[in-house]
Amino acid sequence: MIIDSHCHLTYEPMYSSLKETIIRANADGVKYLLTISTEDKSFKKILNIIENFDCVFGSYGIHPHEAKKHLKIDSKEIINKVKKNKKIIGIGETGLDFYYNHSDKKDQTTLFLEHIEAAQKTNLPLIVHTRSAENETYNILKDAVKKNDLKILIHCFTGTRDFAFKLIDLGAYISASGVVTFKKSQDLASTFKDLPNDKILVETDSPYLAPEPLRGKSNEPSYIVNTVKFLSKIKKVSFEDFSTLTTKNFLNLFGNLN
Asked: Quick check: pTM over 0.85?
């Protein structure tokens, strides 16, 4: 059994063929999917999806790219949205993206802190996006952990080895996407090879980042099998055992899904 810890079922082309997409995922051993919020206006779609598909769970959060459009969102509003359905099991994705800077750095940081406060108050995992902001992300999370308990998941990790192990020291879980399978990602693969097995999750981030040998295609949850195969090989663990291991890690972080 595999759990896709991060996909965007509200995005096309998956949203137009949800039933077929989920059937393909289930047929390939992907028992559960976590569909991720990136902006407020699409949250109704997420609620609709999780109400209609037993195997799909959701999150609420605002992507750092969208911070400038959501300046009025605070921790109270985030908590209210999370309470709309018990199948909303995570907060995010949130974080910092200083690579594109689609939103002002200050606005990104302010909104990130609001998500952290909401995660601490609800005891739900914080799903973190971080790009070209390793020091800033780490310092904010380190300060937050000092103040209160915080469950952290770094999604689609593509950062440095040093950053990865500093995050592990904070108690964070780290998720691998199809990027780890790319030929240019040898350093990233080496990092995942050495990360503790009990801190790794897997994801597609679909419809983006399809793994090898499907790179360039529109990604979907069923394709996660290729990422799991790649990681199990470099970890020298059987495909079945690594699937079980990452599923256990997801449940340890997010809780029982039954």
From this structure: yes
The burial of 218, by beta-carbon neighbours within 10 Å (0-12 exposed, 13-18 middle, 19 or more buried), is given as middle
Q: Is residue 196 reached through a cis peptide bond, with omega within 30 degrees of 0 on the bond before it?
A: no
- Rounded distance, CA 223 to CA 243, Å? 14
Sign of CA dihedral 248, 75, 37, 106: negative
148 contact partners, CB below 8 Å, separation of at least 6:
120
What SS3 class is residue 154? strand
pLDDT tens-digit profile of 37-86? 999 999 999 999 999 999 999 999 999 999 999 999 999 999 999 999 99
Q: Per residue in 186-197, pLDDT tens? A: 999 999 999 999
For residue 3, what are the β-bridge partners?
Answer: 32
* pLDDT of 101 strictly over 90: no
Distance CA 195, CA 215 (A): 24
Residue owning tokens 């028992």: 31
| DSSP letters spanning 65-131 | GGGGG-TT--HHHHHHHHTT-TTEEEEEEEEEETTT-SS-HHHHHHHHHHHHHHHHHHTPPEEEEEE
Residue 208 DSSP one-character state: S
The first and second tokens of residue 64, run together, are: 């750092």
